[in-house]
Design a protein that fits this description.
Layout lengths: L14 H33 L4 H4 L14 H9 L2 H32 L5 H11 L8 H10 L6 H5 L6 H11 L4 H9 L4 H9 L4 H17 L2 H6 L8 H12 L4 H30 L7
């Protein structure tokens, strides 16, 4: 017969009790984090169905009176959603693809090629991770304006093509790869370009997926830089469409703005939910190396 002996005052808890307490604390912290992150999203979705009088009434109702979707219809009437969506997709796919390509080639050179001052180059790449984006806005804007690239796709894409995060993550992963495979390929006459695409890329797909997903989300949600270099509605992306909607309808109809925000958020949220496992696998792929 198994009996349970309670912990006496002043006696340390057993290993099993301590493990149970740690698990309970972990689950409690996880529940609090989920609530903190999900409540604003849930409120945004519910507010997108509310009329102005519901949003300004006290006490504030949790659920809308009806889920008729009138705010979404008004957003479609006031904004060129098709054009904004196509611009966002084009800029996001092209920008994220170029970031992944540049990160791959730069990390490959840092790991598998020998050239002077390689460590200094990698140190500079790491240093750029510490520099806030806002510091480079003025010089980047001056460069783009001097080139005449305002209200152009290249003006939106060019300043953000270099991804220090992607280069760092690829480098850490490449350091875990068996060097014997690449040495054998070199003996067979394969050059660096062939070794990269025939050997390195196929066994690095989880890390590539992680960097691609992070880049896609960053490009899709980018607001400040496109806001500075674009003032033509034909070149705007979906996040800029929110500002355009505010200029048209003002700041009073929050239900309309919440509906537009839901439309901006849903595509990347769906992509993230589909690819979240690849993101975790890719981010931890190079965690064991220094």
């Amino acid at each position: 017969m198994v009996t349970f002996s309670p912990t006496r005052p002043g006696q340390r808890p057993t290993g099993r009790v301590r493990s149970t307490l740690l698990d309970a604390g972990g689950y409690l912290s996880l529940a609090v984090a989920v609530v903190v992150m999900s409540v604003p999203l849930i409120w945004m979705v519910l507010a997108s169905f509310k009329q102005p009088q519901e949003l300004y009434s006290m006490p504030l109702p949790v659920l809308p009176e009806s889920f008729d979707g009138a705010n979404y219809a008004h957003v479609a009437e006031r904004l060129p959603l098709a054009r904004l969506f196509l611009n966002s997709v084009f800029i996001t796919v092209l920008g994220a693809g170029l970031k992944v390509l540049l990160g791959l080639t730069c990390a490959y050179a840092l790991v598998f090629m020998e050239f002077p001052y390689k460590r200094i180059v990698f140190t500079i790449v790491l240093f750029t991770l510490l520099v806030p984006q806002q510091i480079t806005i003025i010089p980047n804007y001056t460069l783009i304006a001097s080139l005449g690239w305002l209200n152009t796709y290249q003006g939106i894409l060019l300043p953000g093509l270099a991804s220090a995060f992607g280069t760092f993550l690829f480098r850490q992963h490449f350091r875990t790869l068996p060097i014997s495979i690449l040495e054998a390929a070199a003996l067979d006459g394969a050059g660096h370009w062939r070794r990269l695409w025939r050997f390195v890329v196929p066994i690095s797909l989880p890390t590539i997926s992680a960097v691609a997903l992070v880049s896609l989300v960053a490009e899709w949600n980018e607001y400040l830089w496109p806001f500075l270099v674009v003032d033509n509605a034909e070149m705007m992306t979906l996040p800029l469409g929110l500002t355009l909607l505010q200029n048209i309808d003002g700041m009073n109809n929050w239900g309309l703005l919440m509906a537009a925000t839901v439309l901006v958020t849903l595509p990347m949220l769906a992509v993230f939910l589909i690819l979240q496992r690849r993101l975790v696998a890719g981010l931890t792929a190079g965690a064991v190396t220094g």
